[in-house]
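Moderator note: this is an archived Q&A kept for reference. The question asked for a predicted structure of one protein chain; the sequence and the answer are reproduced below.
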Amino acid sequence: MLHRIEEAVGIFVAARRSATPIDALPDSAKPVDFAQAHAIQDATAAALGDGIAGWKVSISPQGEVMRGVILRSRMFDSPAAMPARLVPMLGVELEIAFRFDRDLPPRNADYTEAEVANAATALVGIEVVDTRFRSYDDTPLLDRTADCMSNGGYVVGTSRSDWRNFDLAVLEATLSVNGAVVVSQRGGHAAGNPIRPAIPLVNALRAAGGVHAGQIITTGTYTGCYRASPGDRVSGSFAGFGEVEIHFQEA
C-alpha cells in the first residue's frame, strides 16, 4: 500500500510543479478505496510543503465519506485575483463553508450536529474546481478523489457568526460573470442545509487528529459547476447573507 501511495504522490507533485496534466494514473498508483485516496491527498500536501486549510466533503453513492484537501496556499480572501493558468479548468461553485472557531479534537464519541454547528462560523465561498488530469470527465472517481477531489482553490467572502438565524436551505443564490447573472435560484444545495455533510466528516477526522481552529469545511454547491474563461470576474451572493468575488487574470 505504501508504495502505491508514494508513486501516486510523486505523480501529483510533479504535475502540480510542472503544470503538466496527467493522462491517467498507472494501475500501480491507483487508489483502491477512499482511505487510500485520502492518504494520497495528505501525503501530497506534505510533499509540497503545504498546510491543510480545510476540506471539501461529499458522500459517495454507497454512503462513504469523501473529502478533498484544500491547500493553505490555495486559500484566498475575497475579492481575490488568481492567474487563470493556475486552474485551467476554471470551474466555479457558489457555496457556504464553515470555519471552526475552536478545535474539535479526537475523542471516542461522535460529535453531534449541534456541537459541530456551535463551533463554526459560516462563510460565503467560491470553490475553484480544477484537475491535475487531462480529462476530468474520463477520470475515475477514486482517482479524482486522490487529486484532492478536484479542488483548485477556495475564495472566502462574507463571514456570518449569526448564520443559525437563517434557513440556509432556502437562501437566494446568484452567480454572476462579468456582471451578467448566469445562475439565480432559491436553495439548491443537495443536502438542503449545508451543515449536514460536515458532521460525518468531522467524525471521520476524529481518528486523524481532529479539526483545528481556523480550518474550514465546505459541503457543496448551490449553483452547480460553471466553467469560467480567462479574464472573467465571477461574483456570487446569497441575498441578505453575503457575497464573494474572484478575478481570473489572463497573465
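Archived answer notes: The chain has five helices and 13 strands.
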